[in-house]
Amino acid sequence: MTTPNVLKKMGKTIILASPRGFCAGVDRAIKIVEVALEKFGRPVYVRHEIVHNKRVVNDLAAKGAVFVKELDEVPSGSPVIFSAHGVAKTVHQTAKKLNMIAIDATCPLVTKVHIEANKHVRQGRHIFLIGHAGHPEVIGTMGQVEASEITLIETIEDAFAVQPPEDCDLAFATQTTLSADETAEIITVLQHRFPEIRGPKGEDICYATTNRQNAVKAMAKDVDLCLVIGAQNSSNSKRLVETALNAGIAKAELIADSNMLPYELIDDAAVIGLTAGASAPEILIDEVLTALAERYQIEVNTQNFITEKMQFKLPSMLTK
C-alpha cells in the first residue's frame, strides 16, 4: 500500500448520496427518548436499541437512557420506551402488568404493518410475512397475531415452497427495510401461486428505504466503490450494500464509522459513492469525509436524487 504522504496527492471524487442517513421514524424515536428524559428525568429505560446504531445508543445513554434487554430489568412504575422496530403484543401486556409507563417509539410505518396484520387475521386470512428471521421488526410483527396465523417467507425459494393452511384466505405483508427489488420478486411468486392473495394498501417497504436504495442506483454508473455507513445489525444498511452491487458498482462495503474505512479499496477507486443507512447519524458521514481528506485530496459532490419532507408526531403522552 502506498504511504499516506504520497496518497495525500491522490485525487478522489466523493459523491454524497441524497437522501441518506436518518429517516423520519428514526428522528422520531430519538426525539421520544430525549423528550421522555426531559419529562420524567433520569433514568428512562429503553427496551433494546432504540435504533440500530451504537453512536446513537451511546449518546442517549450519556444523557440518561438505560438500555435493557427485557422488561424484568426495569423497576416497576418506571418509564420504558419500546424501540422503533416495534414489539409483540405480549411486551405491551407485560409492561402494563408491571405498572410501567410504556412509551411506544415504533415507527408509524411499522405500526401500519401491525394494523394490517391484525385486520387480515380478523377477516380470516393467513399472513405470509416477507422478512428476515430474528430481526426485531419481524419478531414484533409476528407477535401481533398467533403463531398459527402467520408464516415467515425469507427467500424466493421459500415463496415457491410454502404451503398455506387448507381452506384459508391469504394475505402478505413485508418488513419495512427490505430490498425493494428482491421483495418484488418474492411477491410475484406468491401472487402467481396464490392469485387471490391480498396485499397491503400501498407498499410496506418504507419510503426512506426505497429512496436510499434508488439514490444508490442513480449513482451506480458513476462510481467505482460504494461505502455504506451503518451497523451490521441494520437491515436497511445491509440492503444498501446489496443494492449497490446489484446495480453494477464493482465494490461496496458496509462500515460502522471512519475507523473501518477500507483504504485498500479506496486506493484503487477514482470515484467513491458515500451513503448511510436510515439509523446512521450525519456526524458519521462528516467523520468519514474528514478521515478521507487527511489521506487524499478529495472533491465532494452532493447528489440531489430526492428531498424528503416526511415528519411524524410524538406520542401524545409526551406532548401534553
Major sheet summary line: 5 strands, parallel
Q: Rg from C-alpha positions?
A: 21 Å
Number of domains: 3
- The general outline is flat
Q: Assign the CATH superfamily of the largest domain.
A: 4-hydroxy-3-methylbut-2-enyl diphosphate reductase, catalytic domain
CATH class of the largest domain: Alpha Beta
**Low-confidence spans: pLDDT under 50, at least 5 residues?**
none
Counted beta strands: 12
Summary, kept brief:
The protein folds into 3 domains: 4-22 and 207-302, 4-hydroxy-3-methylbut-2-enyl diphosphate reductase, catalytic domain (Cobalt-precorrin-4 Transmethylase, domain 1, 3-Layer(aba) Sandwich), CATH 3.40.1010.20; 24-107, 3-Layer(aba) Sandwich (Rossmann fold), CATH 3.40.50.11270; 109-204, 4-hydroxy-3-methylbut-2-enyl diphosphate reductase, catalytic domain (Cobalt-precorrin-4 Transmethylase, domain 1). The chain is 40% helix and 19% strand. The protein has 13 helices and 12 strands.
Features:
alpha/beta, Cobalt-precorrin-4 Transmethylase, domain 1, Rossmann fold, 3 domains, 5-stranded parallel sheet, 4-stranded parallel sheet
Describe this structure in words.
It contains 13 helices and twelve strands. The chain has 320 residues and is an alpha/beta fold. The protein has three domains: 4-22 and 207-302, Cobalt-precorrin-4 Transmethylase, domain 1 (3-Layer(aba) Sandwich), CATH 3.40.1010.20; 24-107, 3-Layer(aba) Sandwich (Rossmann fold), CATH 3.40.50; 109-204, 4-hydroxy-3-methylbut-2-enyl diphosphate reductase, catalytic domain (Cobalt-precorrin-4 Transmethylase, domain 1, 3-Layer(aba) Sandwich), CATH 3.40.1010.20. The chain has a five-stranded parallel beta sheet, with helices on both faces. A four-stranded parallel beta sheet has the order 3-2-4-5, with helices on both faces. Strand 6, helix 6 (136-142) and strand 7 form a beta-alpha-beta unit.
